[in-house]
Amino acid sequence: MITRTLTTLVTAIALFTSVPFASAADDSSEEIRNTSVVESGTYQVTAKKVDPEEKEIYVTMEDGKVLELYFSDATQLTQGGQVVAFEALKNGQKLEVQVEKEGSKLKPVAVVILE
Question: What's the whole-model pTM score?
Answer without folding.
Answer: 0.72
